[in-house]
Amino acid sequence: MAADDALNLLTDLIAKAKKAGATAADAVLVDSASLSVAYRLGKPEKVERAESGDVGLRVFLGKRQAIVSSADRSALALDELVERAVAMARTVPEDPFCGLAEPQELAGTLPSLDICDPTEPAADLLVDWAHRAEDAARAVPGVTNSEGAEAGWGRSSVAMAASNGFVHSYQVSSGQIAAAVLAGDAAGGMERDYDYSSAVYFSDLRAPEEVGHSAGHRAVRRLGARKMKTARVPVVYDPRISNGLLSHLAGAINGAAIARGTSFLKDSLGSQILPEGVDVIDDPHRPRGLRSKPCDGEGLANRRRAIVDDGVLTTWILDLRSARQLSLSSTGHASRGTGSPPSPSVTNLWLAPGPVTVAEMIADIPRGFYVTELFGMGVNGVTGDYSRGASGFWIDGGELVFPVHEVTVAGNLKDMFRHMVAASDLVFRHGIDAPTIRIDGMTVAGA
Asked: What is the pLDDT of residue 447?
């Protein structure tokens, strides 16, 4: 649906909701299209195209709110959508913190972020990329089987409108290439690994041969993995998984968790939570950023922030509701879907790179563990206790000496954050990104 048509549909929907008795309303429309292909063992496995669309309406009756969504945009279906939403709002309990932004709070001029690739890749191109990625992976000596390679593309059009006067639409796109293979055999043991690349513009993806070769090399170097005895040693997180630590930080400073009192950092605003000199940046306006957006899901202006500045936590991640609960102002971090109310969420979040190279970071570790993969979700958001299954490589004398599997890394996130050291190898690849990270004094539990 064209942007003007989508916005007209939403403003008409809001007008109908107010006529039906709503004191305020907002609406979101999302149209999505995607194309994906898979290639395995030298043969194409799938070529799929999908298109979907959804419209969501949120209505308010004073301090009561209800949300209804539908994929049907016929006039009759939209009338029923309004009727159901208003009827639901009459039956739910009051929420003193819900409500739209005041008109003066809304974003004015919105930035252009270059977050939509205007070119849709042809299916033949995606097949070719998947084929090349898998061929490169299978060509690595020691690779014995393949889970295949996939290439994909997607684009979404987002339109938002509200009775407070906010009206806006934008488009986002993404492309992906990935490969996963196995090395070894049943007699000597088999290992699996993968690699992938994602970007807003398809032309910004890593070459398929590079992704495939990396996947194959990663699988082969895991052969001969050993179990280790329990020890307290420095742990180094590979950039492929170090962003998980940043995700735990984002969850701990999410305004909803702070308002509930269910975060281990609930009393840490303005306090030193990371080492001095360490910064964490959130930037919704990063050009071609995977999580960039011109405004937040409630129509408020968003901007680049140092969430952690010189190790000090400077702000919570807030939408309007959590901000009202905490008697604060929204930080412009509301995220919104068609079937749920806004909630706080980070955008392009990253840990700033440090001054040392990875080699320098590892050089002075007599015994330690370099983690390349994590398993399970043993993280307690209330206490900060952290325990996850892991595999990677043992460090001896400042070098990676052999692969390790079937161990657990454990600690407490408060302590882990305070001892975090960042290397200089930051690459933007996920939307939430971190360089290689070293944390001393963690427990590696094994045999």
From this structure: 65
- For strands 24-40 and 143-162, give the pairing: antiparallel
Asked whether this chain's domains 3-33+50-104 and 123-221 adopt the same fold, the reply is yes
The rounded Cα 314 to chain-centroid distance in angstroms is 21
With 0-12 / 13-18 / 19 or more C-beta atoms within 10 angstroms meaning exposed / middle / buried, residue 314 is middle
Q: Distance from CA of residue 356 to its chain's centroid?
A: 26
3-state secondary structure the chain: CCHHHHHHHHHHHHHHHHHCCCCEEEEEEEEEEEEEEEEECCEEEEEEEEEEEEEEEEEEECCEEEEEEECCCCHHHHHHHHHHHHHHHHHCCCCCCCCCCCHHHECCCCCCCCCCCCCCCCHHHHHHHHHHHHHHHHCCCCEEEEEEEEEEEEEEEEEEEECCCCEEEEEEEEEEEEEEEEEEECCCEEEEEEEEEEECCHHHCCCHHHHHHHHHHHHHHCCCCECCCCEEEEEEECHHHHHHHHHHHHHHCEHHHHHHCCCCCCCCCCCECCCCCCCEEECCCCCCCCCCCCCCCCCECCCCEEEEECCEECCCECCHHHHHHCCCCCCCCEECCCCCCCEECCCCEEECCCCECHHHHHHCCCEEEEEEEEECCCECCCCCEEEEEEEEEEEECCEEEEEEEEEEEEEEHHHHHHCEEEECCCCCCCCEECCCEEEEEEEEECC
CA triplet 385, 194, 408: central angle to 5 degrees? 25
Judge residue 358's burial from the number of C-beta atoms within 10 Å of its C-beta, 0-12 exposed, 13-18 middle, 19 or more buried: middle
pLDDT tens column, 140-192: 999 999 999 999 999 999 999 999 999 999 999 999 999 999 999 888 889 99
pLDDT given at position 378: 87
Rounded to an integer, the average pLDDT of 245-263 is: 97
pTM for the full predicted model: 0.94
pLDDT in tens, 39-69: 999 999 999 999 999 999 999 999 999 999 9
Work out the widest C-alpha separation in the chain, in whole angstroms: 74
Q: Which CATH superfamily is domain 3-33+50-104 in?
A: PmbA/TldD superfamily (3.30.2290.10)
Regarding the domain with residue range 123-221, which homologous superfamily does it belong to in the CATH classification? PmbA/TldD superfamily (3.30.2290.10)
Domain extents for the chain? 3-33+50-104, 123-221, 225-447
C-alpha to C-alpha distance for 205 and 217, rounded to whole angstroms: 19
